[in-house]
Amino acid sequence: MINNKIFFFFYNFAHQSIFFDRLVIFFADIFPYIVIVLAGIFLLVHHEVITSKNPFSALAQKWKEIVLVFFSGIFAWCISQVIKFLIHNPRPFLAFPNVSSLLPESGFAFPSGHATFYMALAFSIFLSHKKAGFVFIFFAFLIGIARIIAGVHFPIDILGVFILGIFIAYSMELLYNIFFKKN
């Protein structure tokens, strides 16, 4: 099966050096929190909240656009948890006895809540600011690949929900434009 071949291609990078394993753990487990902070800072700067003479007034005017990005990610994560509950796909370290995870994870693998959240967040940013969106999409891919290398997700767990994250972000943008944006 191609999913397993791709998984082992990436997973074989794990357990080769302590430095690389720590780097993978950083990108799979710690870097996601940094991405959230960077997204928040970017949105506050992009919507001129921080640079405004009256940041509270600017935030009061732009809060819907800022919340939309994070709401897209949270909503995507919630959908992924429902799908995960329905599908019950085991994690690689449970499916293969020779796989030793770099991270302590539990629960089912498909879909990846991390991948869904970060792709929805990244694509929401992309919809309003292309260049920064590409950077955040790259971050989402980096997090997803690190979680494959760490042995906690199969490639389909990541790539499949990237599509879901994009769909949810785009849907949230459409709904926002219908209900909140003034033409």
What does this structure look like?
By secondary structure, this protein is an all-alpha fold. It has one domain: Up-down Bundle (Vanadium-containing Chloroperoxidase, domain 1), CATH 1.20.144. 75% of the residues lie in helices and 0% in strands. The chain has 7 helices and no strands. Helix 3 crosses helix 7 (155-179) and helix 5 packs antiparallel against helix 6 (130-149). The longest helix is centred in the middle third of the chain and has 33 residues, at 55-87. The radius of gyration is 18 Å and the shape is elongated. The mean pLDDT is 83.
Largest sheet: none
Which fold name corresponds to the CATH topology?
Vanadium-containing Chloroperoxidase, domain 1
Number of strands: 0
Class per helix and strand makeup:
mainly alpha
What is the element string, with H for helices and E for strands?
Answer: HHHHHHH
Shape call: elongated
Percent of residues in beta strands: under 5%
Helix content: over 70%
| Count of DSSP H/I helices | 7
Distance between the termini: 50 Å
